[in-house]
Amino acid sequence: MKKKVLRITTVPVSLDLLLKGQLKMLNEMYEVVAVSSPGKELEEVGKREGVRTVAVRMERRISPIQDLKSLFALVRLIRKEKPWMVHTLTPKAGLLGMLAAWMCRVPVRMHMFTGLVFPTSTGLKRKLLMTTDRLTCACATFINPEGKGVKNDLIRFGITRKELHIVGNGNINGIDMSYFDRTEEVMRKAEDIREKGCVTFCFVGRIVGDKGMNELARAFKQLEADFPACRLLLVGDFEEKLDPVLPETKRMLLENSRITFAGWQNDIRPYLAASDVFVFPSYREGFPNVVLQAGAMGLPCIVTDINGCNEIICHGVNGLIIPSHDESALLKAMKFMLTDEHARMEMAGKSRELIGSRYERSFLWNEIRKTYQSLE
Fold first, then answer.
1. CB 262 within 8 A of CB 235
2. pLDDT attached to residue 313
3. What order of strands is seen across the sheet that includes strand 319-322?
C-alpha cells in the first residue's frame, strides 16, 4: 500500500505552475493528494497530474479569523486522510499546514522556503513575518530552502537551528530543457515578434516596484536616448494593488514607442527567442524560474545580486550581476550588452549549457525521489 502525501499550497496556481509534472511523478510511488484554495486551476491539476484534490480556503494576506478557520479545516482533513507526509509550499500554506500537521502528529512534515519576504521588510511587519517563519520551522521535521541564499538568510536571521536541506542544486521543479528550447515552432512564432536591426532586452514577470521596474524604466529611457537601436519587450501585467510602480514609471513605460507590451503569456518561449538579453532587476527572489527559463533559451541575463539569481548566473560567464536598487549599474550593464556584441554572444553561447548541467528537471526529480525515500 502506497504511503499518502499531502502537497499543500495557498492558492491552486502554485500547484499548477510551480509543480507541473512533479505530482504525477511522485504519484507513481506515493498516494499524492493536492490541497489548496478552491479554483479552476485545482481541478486542472487533478486531471493533468492524475491525483486527488481537496479544496481548503486559505488567504495569502494576514486574516486572523479566516486563518483560524483554515487551520481547523486542515486539521480535520489531516485527521481524515492520515498522511505519512505533509509537504507544504508558499508562506501561508507552510504556516497553517505545518501547524496542523504538528497538531495531528504527522510523521514527516516538510516545508520548502522559496523567496523570503522578511529580509526586505521593516518594523512590525518584519517581526511578524519572522515569527511566523520560526513557527513554521518549529513544526516542521524537514526544512528545505530552495537555494543557498534562502538557506543563508534562515541562518543569518536566526529563524531556526534545525538542519536545512537543499535538494539537488536548488529550485522547486527544475527546468524542462526539451520544452525550453528553440524549436522550429518556437522560432516561427519568434519571427513575428522580433524586430530586426536592434538589440532587444526582455523582462518577464509582474510589472511592480519590487521587480525593479522603476529602475528599469529610467535606465532604458537613458539607454534609448543614446542608442536608438534598442527595444524593451515586457511580458507581464501591471498590478495596482500589490506594490504598483510609480506613476511616472507607468507613464514612461506606456509612452515610449521603443517599449513593447506583450501582456501575460502562457507561453513565453517565443518572446525569449525573439530577444537578445534577459533583464531582471528584482529586489528579492527565492530561486526565480524565469531566469532559468531565459538561460535555457540561450539568453545572457542581467540580474541583481540577490538570492537565486546569484546562484543561477555566473558573472561574466552567462550574464552580469549588478547591485539591486542601482539604476546606474543597470544602465551600465545594458550598455555593455548592447555595445559589446562579442561578449554578449559568448555569454549567450554558454547560457543553455550551464542551466542544463545544474537544473535539468529529470535530475531534480530524481533528487526529490531520493529525499522522500530517505525519510521513510
1. yes
2. 98
3. 259-261, 230-235, 199-204, 277-280, 301-304, 319-322
Residues 247-252 have a mean pLDDT of 94
**For residue 179, is it within any domain?**
no
Cα gap 198→277, rounded to integer Å: 12
What percent of the chain stands above pLDDT 70?
100
**50 φψ region: left (φ > 0), alpha (ψ -120 to 50), beta (else):** left
Residue found by looking up cell 480556503 in the block:
57
The answer to whether residues 62 and 150 belong to one domain is: yes
Give pLDDT tens digits for 92-111.
999 999 999 999 999 999 99
| Residue 164 and residue 108 in one domain | yes
| 66 and 87 part of one domain | yes
Judge if 196 and 136 occupy the same domain: no
| Residue 370, domain member (yes or no) | yes
* Sign (positive or negative) of CA dihedral 231, 234, 240, 244: negative
Convert the pLDDT of each residue in 198-226 to its tens digit.
999 999 999 999 999 999 999 999 999 99
Residue whose entry in the numeric block shows the C-alpha cell 486551476: 41
How many domains does the structure of the chain reveal? 2
Q: Are residues 48 and 75 in the same domain?
A: yes
Q: Give dist(CA 132, CA 154) in Å, integer.
A: 13
Containing structural domain, residue 8 = 4-174+361-374
Residues 159 and 189 in one domain: no
- Residue where the block lists cell 538589440: 199
How many CB atoms sit inside 10 A of residue 239's CB?
A: 14
pTM, whole model, 2 decimals? 0.89
More confident residue, 276 or 126: 276
pLDDT score, position 153: 94
Share of the chain above pLDDT 90, in %: 93
- The set of residues, in sequence order, having a beta carbon less than 8 Å from that of 112 and lying 6+ positions away, is 87, 88, 89, 94, 144, 145, 146, 172
Residue 250 lies in a domain: yes
Is residue 126 domain-shared with residue 265, that is, in the same domain?
A: no
Can you read off the three cell numbers belonging to residue 216? 528599469
